[in-house]
Amino acid sequence: MAASGEGTVLERQTSVSGETSMPRETSSSQEVLSANRPTREAAEEPANALTPHRPEEAAQPVVTSSTSLGSPNAGSLAEGAALPLKGPGFRFRPGRNLDARFGTDELVRALVRAALRVHREMPGAELYVGDLSHPHGGPIRGHGSHQNGRDVDLLFYYLDEEGAPLPPVAAPIDPRGIGIDFRDLEDPEDDIAMHLDVPRTWLLIQSLLEQPAISVQRIFIVEHIRSMLLSYVRQISVPAETVLLFEHVTCQPRYPHDDHIHLRIYCAAEDISDGCRDTSPVYHWHRQRLASKGASVVLADRRRRTRPQITTAKQAREAAGPMHADVVRFLSERESWMTAPRTGRPYCR
Fold first, then answer.
1. On the chain, which terminus has fewer CB atoms closer than 10 Å, C or N?
2. What are the backbone angles phi and psi of residue 81, rounded to the nearest 5°?
3. Rounded Cα distance, 97 and 273, in Å
4. Over the stretch 227-250, which tens digit does the pLDDT of each residue have?
5. Which residues, 6+ apart, have CB-to-CB distance to 41 below 8 Å?
């Protein structure tokens, strides 16, 4: 029986875990910000970029050296920043390929800060960060994108039946907000019910949306979890512009993303002249933001993309072997939300 946090049995049947040398582990967010050899200084961020709890924790001017090249589906990464294996409020997901934790400085910095905010405001749980990109980008097994340091997979926060935080696994969440960690697919006695931790999951997303150093292009997430999050934020105090941004950037793609969040950021203004290319959609507010920095969006050639190396739900189900009745029933129910809905929204049709 696998330890909690390593993924469901169904997922483990098809997951890939590369063997690499173990990098030095660190929990210092400052080391993330200065890990790479600097090549240019970024503009100092506003004081509210990271709300400090103590004066010495205020956001500092940062140095950037990474360059995202090409597009998420046909790109590469120069001088990528490595996400630490563990830090305040987060860890790189156990069992994943250690070479898949590299991203742009902006993205890694944003992840560290978002996890830290959740850790401070709602302590007791950890964010499990999944795949970003390879050290130099390029195709990555199991993904159609993640090629140039601007994509990342994030597991949801979960609670047990009593409301206590659970170590995350990639358990699909149904429309009631419940998932099951089917540990041994043939044994119903070791199944663990997992409830979506809506407040923590929202706070993570809010922190990422509100960070001025990045511009979020897409949050791929299943439609019913999107609806749960919107229902929650309408009951609490959240800036209207943050809610509006969330409404626009969230979308369920062909693969439903009911067991994790896939977040993508736009090219940094400094990377565009070096060859960073965005994909649609491009929101008017992002164009305005780039214009204020003397840059403009350059879209990728849609003909230049690699064929994704992904495992379909059907393939995973066939590879998993015998299953007890509750697993079969859940997978049959899951088919009802596997198809991307027709939302009619401007940026997610």
1. N
2. -90, 135
3. 31
4. 999 999 999 999 999 999 999 999
5. 61, 63, 64
